[in-house]
Predict the structure of carbonic anhydrase.
Amino acid sequence: MLFEGNQRFVSGQLQHPHQGAEDRAAVAPAQRPFAVLFGCSDSRLAAEIIFDQGLGDLFVVRTAGHVAGSEVLGSIEYGVSVLGAPLVVVLGHDSCGAVGAALTAVQQGTAPDGYIREVVERVMLSVLAVREEASTDPQQAVEEHIRYTSELILRRSSMIAERVADGRCGVLGLSYRLAEGTVRQVVGHGV
């Protein structure tokens, strides 16, 4: 459903499902999203739009650089265990400011001030893993960070790892291209 919705978005054939007054009333008593979507908070990465979904379809969690702390992991677990979503999607994108800042920090040996520094430090492990490749192709760092975040969710959340192991849930890492509007799979666990 996500890939089909993205194809509609790319081609301009949007259906805008589940966005009317009747849909609002139908989901008001309870939500049953088909996926938890954990993505970057970049303003150009609005999940319901790029996947042509509507109210109640996606349980969306967003942070700069899709960095995952305890609040994020708790939110993802809530979407899976309480709301029953059988899929967790990690959505990264090209030209990510957090990945770019981490690349700069690694190359120049500096880091930004304030709480932005914490975001950059959480992305830095991904960048360090592909430092050489990313120096000429920053997309390598983006994709490594998508893989890293997907695997981090499985390492840190035994509840999600158990559900993936027994086939009740999948974790999918996707990369979004800003100019084209397309997504492609980078990694999948239990999918």
In short: The longest strand covers residues 87-93. Residues 139-156 form the longest helix (18 residues). The radius of gyration is 17 Å.
